[in-house]
Amino acid sequence: MSLKQIVALHMSVVVCFLFVPVASGQSDPDEPRVAVKFLAESYSEHRESFPKLKVRFQWAEVKAGSRDQALDGEFIHMDEPIDCLLITAPRRRRYEYICGKVTQAEVREQMAQSQAELLSVKCLSYFLLEADGYALRYSPVGKMANLFVPGGAESSGVQISPFDLGTMGPDGVSHPARYLNEALNGRFQFDYIGQRYPDQSDLTVATIGDRLRDEFSFDPDRAFLLSRYSCFDHQNSLRLSEMRVLDAVECSANRWFPMRAVKIRFPDDSERMRIFYLKVLEFDPDYDASPADWELELSDNTNISVANEVQWTRTPDDKSERFAASDFPTLHDRCIERGRQYEEEVRREESITNIESPRRRSITWTIITVNGVVVLSFLIWLWRKRSKH
After folding, report:
1. 132: left (phi over 0), alpha (psi -120 to 50) or beta
2. Which of 148, 223, 248, 341 could form a disulfide with 135 if both were Cys (CB 3.0 to 4.6 A apart)?
3. Residues 278, 163: contact at Cβ < 8 Å?
4. DSSP readout, 8-59?
5. Could you tell me if 304 and 298 are in contact, meaning their C-beta atoms sit under 8 angstroms apart?
6. Considering the entire predicted model, what is its pTM?
7. What is the DSSP string of 175-214?
8. Exposure string over 109-119, b if 16+ CB within 10 A, otherwise e
């Protein structure tokens, strides 16, 4: 019996006994918990079955005639897409988020003309390389890079991926298994809905917090891939966001990977509704990364700073510099040393300032005193002159 058949049989047993009454004639209160626990474990097992992955995809804002048309993948307009790349390996990851050429040109012009310290731009390209607790995030526009080190601030991680389209937060931190397990542990309430859509085998479960209701639908025919997701404000029952997988391909060992998906923000509000579309262009579920995949080239005169620390360095003024993932500890030491030199320079300047301060104060008070004497002498002369008259 294949793994797919075993999984299907296992789930059919779970689903069947959910509706079998116990001897007392009442349904067993533990039955929904068993189903929810099974869905959380099945989702996690499938999600973690891609330890070595390479996927190149596009992400774009689109327009559709209606919410239903968007959920069916029927669009009437597509903005310039963003090109993304995700490569994963044990303890390493590479992510690229590259805005379209027209958008990049607009951003460069906006940055060149603006004098503001903080600037909001439409799209900012960046590269992210993670290895062994370190992460280097680099934005070519502005020539800025941040180094994240073990025990320090955390990087922003992967923002958009085919698994969740950014609906679960950076790195999918709010993934379904986490929510379902926290519901089982009592942080949230949960509602096992089961087969909600008559024409599909998806199994749906909801977690309910103080304000939000999150509904997750898993497809047992596709290894419990997350096929739908909706987030409701349950005070007014309006959806805040919605996601649906349009197509998925089967890989070896009963693994399924999303190839096309759509995400909608404010789907129940036609004026605020925004629609985003993801399409996979290239995919290898068992990718063996090359050494070049774990290297990042930074342009000349790029500032590299350790996140939340007074530690930094720069690439040379006249040429780019390439960093391998294995170079991150050395790069960190380089930033620390430059930061130490800077602090010594500051202390030295403060020392000189402290020595000069009394002299400056005496000069200031002398000027004030002299001026006071001059003013006082003038007033005495003026009083005597008037007295004579």
Report:
1. left
2. 148
3. no
4. HHHHHHHHHHTT---TTSS--THHHHHHHHHHHHHHHHHHTT-SSEEEEEEE
5. yes
6. 0.81
7. -HHHHHHHHHTTSSEEEEEE---TTS--EEEEEE-SSEEE
8. eeeeeeeeeee
